[in-house]
Amino acid sequence: MLLRAMGFLILLLPVAFGNALAAGSLADGVRLSVRNAPVPVRVNGNREVFYELHIENQGERPIKLVQVSLRENPGDDKIRASYDGAELLGNLQIFDGDYRAAGRDYLRDEKEDPNSIGSSMVGVVFLQFVLDEDETLPDSWLHDVIVQRTSADGQRIETPVSGGVFTLSQREPLTIRPPLQGGPWWVFESMENAAVHRRAMVLQSPLISQRYGVDYMKLGESGSTFGGDDPTRQEAWYGYGEPVFAVADGVVTDLIDGVPENTPLSPERAVPMTIDTINGNYVILDIGSGYYAVYGHMIPNSIRPSLGQRVSRGDVIGLLGNSGNSEGPHLHFHLGTENMVFEAEGLPYAYEQFKVLGRVDMEQIQVSGFSEEQKMETLQRRDEIPGNFTVVEFPETAGSVD
């Protein structure tokens, strides 16, 4: 379906969930699009929105992005988010038309500006903003982008382009139980614009299956991730062998088992990293309504259900390990739209309840662990995803985990 609005062409795109709109627009050789209507999700007590603006250069000359802004409703002046300078470059990734990384030698001449979007290339801007708790949502959202081109005579010309209209999905994130119990668990690469999972566009695809993905490592009483004198032993890590639980009733639709584990803290991997081994020993559960729960990096031969087996919420499906692309025992978890680890769109979710004990960043966890300075008054959270670098405690699971 095609529409014309405000002087630019709009192409309506399919939307995964909710009565919402995500649209593309073409103006002055620049196509702006939001592929899916974003779903607000609760993180750190806030309602936050994570999504991507795709900027395709359909012209003949390279373009550079000067500024990207998000405003409420076409015709309104209220700016909700705006990136320029170093902040814009830090939230930009550039791909060729097939979504291969443009920084690779075979995709870009070494003389080209690595921050420019060449002809037929795509720049993806990762955006994040916070919604006020009780605010009335606007009918739609629109992007204003300033692009810069260099003319044949060397002049730099800036051109404003508007488009990429979308509305927020009204569908609530799926509420599930946590995949782990007890704690404390350190949360990393989670729910932050710069997190690795947030930007994991792989397989020459614009899909981000791990957009809401989370990694978990267990901490000991000392606040570190391992104890003893030999951290190269799997058993020295506090989370190693912890039970991993079904977050909802479901059916096992895919699994890989038998991938050997890596030596902790070693950059070497026990097996070559491929699409089949990068998630290590994993399980995918179809939990209904188009949601698939993905678990990764478990201990080889610890996966309990078989392919096609129905599991109940709270069933143990495996044990936390160190297989796949992993340098220390941890669990990876996310929800997606398909029965695949990567070739799916990531979906938001919320845990029924958990406690937040504090926050410790990557450098601190490696140097001093989770110390008294990082601890805070315990916060009870409900219907949220744990925030990046938080330390959390989940409810204990009733019943046997043997």
How do the helices and strands line up, and which of them pair or pack?
Layout: E1 2-5, E2 8-12, E3 23-27, E4 30-33, E5 41-43, E6 46-57, E7 64-72, E8 79-84, H1 85-90, E9 92-95, E10 122-131, E11 141-150, E12 156-166, E13 174-176, E14 182-188, E15 214-218, E16 243-245, E17 250-256, E18 281-288, E19 291-298, E20 310-311, E21 316-319, E22 331-336, E23 346-347, E24 349-359, H2 362-367, E25 375-384, E26 390-394
Parallel strand pairs: 13-24
Antiparallel strand pairs: 1-2, 2-3, 3-4, 4-6, 5-6, 6-10, 7-8, 7-11, 9-10, 11-12, 14-15, 14-26, 15-22, 16-21, 17-18, 17-20, 18-19, 19-22, 22-23, 24-25, 24-26
Summed up, the helix count is: 2
* CATH fold-type name of the largest domain: Glucose Permease (Domain IIA)
Q: Give the class from helix and strand content and strand pairing.
A: mainly beta
What kind of sheet is the major sheet?
Answer: 12 strands, mixed
Give the C-alpha Rg.
22 Å
Quick one: CATH superfamily of the largest domain?
A: Glucose Permease (Domain IIA)
CATH C-level name of the largest domain: Mainly Beta
* Beta-strand segment tally: 26
Globular, elongated, flat, extended or rod-shaped: what is the shape? globular
Which H/E pattern describes the elements?
Answer: EEEEEEEEHEEEEEEEEEEEEEEEEHEE
Named at the architecture level, the CATH assignment of the largest domain is Distorted Sandwich
Proportion of strand residues:
35-45%
Poorly predicted runs: 1-19, 398-402
